[in-house]
Amino acid sequence: MNAPVVRVGVLGCGTVGSSLISLLQRQRATIGSRTGLELEVTRVAVRDASRSRGVDLPAGALTTDAASIVSDPDVDVVVELMGGVEPARTLVLEALAAGKPVVTANKALLAAHGPELFAAASAAGVDLLFEAAVAGGIPFVRPLRESLLGEPVHRVMGIVNGTTNFILTRMTEAGADYAEALAEAQALGFAEADPTADVEGHDAAAKIAIVATIAFGAAVTADDVVVEGISGITAADIAFAARHGFVVKLLAVAELTDGADGPQIGVRVNPVLVPETHPLASVRESFNAVFVQGDAVGDLMFYGRGAGGDPTASAVLGDLVDAVVNLRRGAHATIGGLEPARIRPADEGVAAHYLSLQAADRPGVLAAVAGVFGEHGVSIASMEQEGAGTDGEARIEFVTHRAVERDLRATLTALRDLDAVHSVGSVVQVLTEEEGS
Ligand code: NAP
User: Fold this and answer.
1) Pocket flag, ligand 1, residue 16 (CB < 6 Å)
2) Is 100 designated active site?
3) Could you tell me the pTM of the whole model?
4) Is 47 close to ligand 1, i.e. is its CB under 6 Å away?
5) Could you give the CA distance from residue 155 to residue 403 in angstroms, rounded to a whole number?
6) What is the reported pLDDT for 333?
7) CA-atom Rg of the chain in angstroms
8) CATH 3.30.360.10 domain residues, the chain
9) pLDDT tens string 16-51
10) How many other C-beta atoms are found inside a 10 Å radius of the C-beta of residue 398?
11) Which residue's CA lies nearest to atom 38 of ligand 1?
C-alpha cells in the first residue's frame, strides 16, 4: 500500500531552503519507514524563478508568488525560509489561518512578532515550529519546550552567534586584534560584508528573546534585550582575561531574578569574561552552545553548529516531520499562554565587571580612583597596574565584586570626571559563581 503523501510548500530556496530540499530527498525513505508518511516538496517560492537552484524539483514547482503557495489547497504544510519580517509575517499568519502547520527558521520574525504568531497558531490549532531559529542545527528549542516543561529553569546562557565566537576565538588564540579577526572572518565567509547585526549583538538579541519567551512563558521581544556587541573589545582586554584564567565570550543571557514586586526577567547580550573552567569557555570557532540552569536538573549544555545550510536544514526537517505527524493525528504542540513579560530595567542588573583606565602615573591617583568606587558602593575585588609608561600615563585594570548596574554607571561617570583619569576603556562583565560558573 502506498504511504499517504504530505505536500510541502517551501517559501525560499536559498542557503537553507535548498539544503532542506536535498536533505528531505536523501532522508525520504527513512522518514517514510518511521512515520508511514511520504513528504513531497510540491511548490517553492523564490524571487528569481529563472535561476537554477541545484535541487531536483517537480516541473513548474518554482514560483515568485509566495502567497499562491500559502493559499494553494494542494499544499498541506508550509516551511518559511525566506527571512525578514514582511512578507514572511503575513504569509505565516495566512497559512496558520488556513489551518496549515508552519515551520520557520526566521529569528527576526519571531523576535519581533512571536507572541502574535504563537497566538495565531494556538487559535488555529496547528503547529508553528521554529527549532532552527535559535541555534541553527542544535536541537534545543524542543527540549526546552517539551523535556524541560516541568523544570524550574532560572537561567539560560548561550553562545548563539558563530561570527562573534569565531572573531573572539581568533583574538584569543592567534593574538589578532578585532579588525584583523573580523577581516579573517569575512574572508572565510563567517561574517557578512556588513557585519553589524552580528558584531553589535542584534542577531543574538533576537535569539535570546525567543529563548526567554519559551523558558519563562512570557512575551519577550528583541526590544526588551539590553544589547552590547564585541566591537569595543581590545587585544589588551583579551590579554587581561588570559592572564587571569578567563576567555571573552559574547553571551546571550535570559534569567529570572527577584524584583521589588516579584520575579523579573533579565535579558541581555554582552561580552563576558568566562572562567576557562566553565563549559562555555570551551566553545571555539563558529560553534554555538546553550547552557541551561534548572533548579531540579542542574546544569545542561547543548553544543553544535549554530548556522550553515545543512545544520539548519537538519533542524527544519526535524520540525517538519513533527508537524506532519501531528497534522495526521490532529494534534499540535503548544508553548501555552504567554504572560506579559515583567522585564528587569537595564540599570537594575547585578554583575561583577572588569574595567580599565588610562590615568596619570603619580602619587595619590590610585587612592582617588579607589575612593570613587567606594563612594558609589562598588567594591574592588582586584586591581592591577600595567608598568608606568614613559609618558607618565599608566593603565590600571580593576575587577569589581558584583554591583548594581546603576552604581557601576555612576562610578564610571565620576571616574571620567577625575582630572587624573585620561580615559575609561573597556567595561566587561565577569561571570561569577552566582551566575553558575
Ligand atoms: P537566503 O539564502 O537569503 O534565502 C532566502 C530565499 O528566500 C531565497 O531563495 C529568496 O529568493 C527567497 N525570497 C526572499 N524573499 C522572497 C519573496 N518576497 N518572495 C519569494 N521568495 C523570496 O537565506 P537563508 O540563509 O537560507 O535563510 C533563510 C532563513 O533561515 C532566514 O530567516 C534566516 O535567518 C534563517 N536561518 C539561516 C541560517 C543560515 O545559516 N543561513 C541559520 C539559521 C537560521 P532568491 O533566491 O530568488 O533571491
Assistant:
1) yes
2) no
3) 0.94
4) yes
5) 19
6) 87
7) 24
8) 150-304
9) 999 999 999 999 999 999 999 999 999 999 999 999
10) 21
11) 307
